[in-house]
Write a structure and sequence with these properties.
Shape: globular
Oligomer: single chain
Number of domains: 1
CATH topology: Rossmann fold
Number of helices: 9
Distance between the termini: 43 Å
CATH class: Alpha Beta
CATH architecture: 3-Layer(aba) Sandwich
Helix content: 25-40%
CATH superfamily: Vaccinia Virus protein VP39
Largest sheet: 7 strands, mixed
Strand order of the largest sheet: 6-2-1-10-11-13-12
Radius of gyration: 18 Å
Structural class: alpha/beta
Order of helices and strands: HEHEHEEEEEEEHEHEHHEHEH
Length: 277
């Protein structure tokens, strides 16, 4: 894997980030629309987003949805990144220009010591199931089938973060993971840089525990984050059955680095107030 090409490194071996950017955010697992990246880009003009996704098919959708031969219809319900046009589309409109605020990284992420290749299970594309593709093999309880087993480049987040200019960006604002049962491994792959990440949002659905062979245990994941000084600040829940308990329906958690947030509280509160205003 050519890291210099993948990560767009400068002569000092650092990721090239435009001078007008103030924050770095990392989106791991984009699917075909990259809605989290789109939301971040819409809400601020000084955020630089690193988008990481292993599937060619999803990148073709993110480049140009119309020419991608997507098997699922366009949606106006979420922000959609369109790199060829250089815009984020939302609710039928070109909501903002991307310009030079997004960096594409074409690989999967795992807790590996060095860049390598691994088998990736590309799930059936119908009804959007390709978004549930994973480095983990689906179990017999998974609702979709394997369309293809492919080899993909894999690296750790620590490898990527090793190339951040930490003198310019003392912390990463947000890392989001949606990695179909591999989220705990992806977060652990941050390695020595974990204490320099402010927010981490990860999928923790209990359904993934049954859908994938070797899926992480959400309770171990949450205990790990607590042990590293992170609190839980946002829970996103998805209820498909009115009788499902809150714990069983848990879908996504946002963790906050308490040790990092406290000394930055005043400046961060001002920054987010400006975004909201």
């Amino acid at each position: 894997m050519n890291l210099t090409k993948q990560l767009n490194l400068d002569k000092n071996n650092k990721i090239k980030v435009p001078q007008n950017m103030r924050r770095i955010l990392i989106d791991v697992g984009l699917a075909g629309e990259a809605p989290n990246s789109g939301n971040w880009l819409i809400n601020s003009t000084d955020r630089f987003v690193i988008g990481i996704e292993p599937l060619d098919y999803h990148w073709s959708m993110i480049e140009n949805y119309k020419t991608s031969n997507s098997l699922r219809p366009w949606t106006d319900a979420i922000p959609v990144v369109q790199l060829e046009e250089g815009v984020v589309k939302f609710q039928g409109k070109n909501f903002c220009e991307i310009k030079n605020r997004f960096m594409k990284v074409h690989c999967a992420v795992d807790d590996v010591d060095e860049p390598t290749k691994k088998t990736f299970y590309k799930m059936d594309r119908r009804m959007g199931a390709s978004g549930s593709s994973s480095l983990l093999k689906p179990s017999d309880k998974h609702p979709h089938f394997i369309e293809e087993e492919i080899q993909v480049d894999v690296m750790s987040l620590e490898t990527i973060l090793d190339h951040i200019d930490w003198d310019r960006f003392p912390f990463i604002e947000h890392i989001k993971t949606d990695c179909e049962g591999k989220d705990f491994d992806v977060v652990r792959s941050i390695g020595k840089h974990l204490d320099k990440v402010l927010f981490i949002t990860s999928e923790v659905s209990e359904k993934n525990f049954d859908h994938w062979e070797g899926s992480h245990d959400q309770n171990l994941f949450r205990a790990f984050m607590k042990g590293k000084g992170f609190g839980e600040v946002v829970w996103r829940e998805r209820f498909t059955d009115p009788n499902v308990t809150t714990t069983g329906a848990m879908y996504e958690i946002t963790f906050i680095n308490n040790k990092l947030y406290e000394p930055l509280r005043q400046s961060l509160d001002f920054y987010y107030a400006r975004l909201d205003g």
